[in-house]
Amino acid sequence: ELGQLYRREEVNPGAGCLPILVQIPVFFALYKVLYTTIEMRHQPFYGWIKDLSAPDPLTILTGFGFLPWHVPEFLAFFNIGLWPIIMGVTMYLQQKLNPQPTDPIQARVFQFLPILFTFMLAPFAAGLVIYWAWSNILSIAQQYYIMRRHGVPVGGGKVALPATAPAAPASEKKGGGNKGGKKS
């Protein structure tokens, strides 16, 4: 049924993968450049980021810079910086602009992805997390602009399916119901 809808509306379901296929090589290249380029090490960026190749120094466990203590190794998983939190929030907001999946399991997985990525990207280079957060922010702005321009309600999160005829009751489907052609 979904395949018929795609064909009727001339939508290619694989087209949604194209933007990420462009971003993934950029992401890996940035990761490699930020991790291996000697010239970028200890180069100041803006604000509290003094090294783009190091993780965000302002973390939850250091009170975002107010507590001058070294976080023990066993707490490193919870040592989440400000930029990974910003990235997680922008990822969540970006998902809210998109229609919710009809599959409840897929919807549940999408709910936890921003949390998972926040923890997963916390130890990554700050430059990489900043790139990902800005990519999310620009995607939110683009999606918001497109939705407003076309009169689509923003942030509803509901699946918008085209209006179709209601499904026939089970008694009228093949092999069941009245046999004489008369409806009661």
Classification by helices and strands:
mainly alpha
- Helix coverage percent of residues? 40-55%
Compressed to H and E, one letter per element, the order equals HHHHH
Shape, per Cα inertia axes = elongated
CA-based gyration radius: 24 Å
Average pLDDT figure: 75
Largest sheet: none
Please report the distance between the alpha carbons of the first and last residues: 29 Å
Which stretches are low in confidence, meaning pLDDT under 50 for 5 or more residues running? 159-165, 170-184
Number of strands: 0
What does this structure look like?
- The structure is a single chain.
- The protein is mostly helical and about 180 residues long.
- About 45% of the residues lie in helices and about 0% in strands.
- The chain has 5 helices and no strands.
- The chain has helices spanning about 1-10, 20-35, 80-95, 105-120, 125-150.
- Helix 3 (about 80-95) runs parallel beside helix 5.
- The longest helix has 24 residues, at about 125-150.
What labels describe this entry?
single chain, 184 residues, 5 helices, 46% helix, mainly alpha, disordered C terminus, elongated, 0% strand
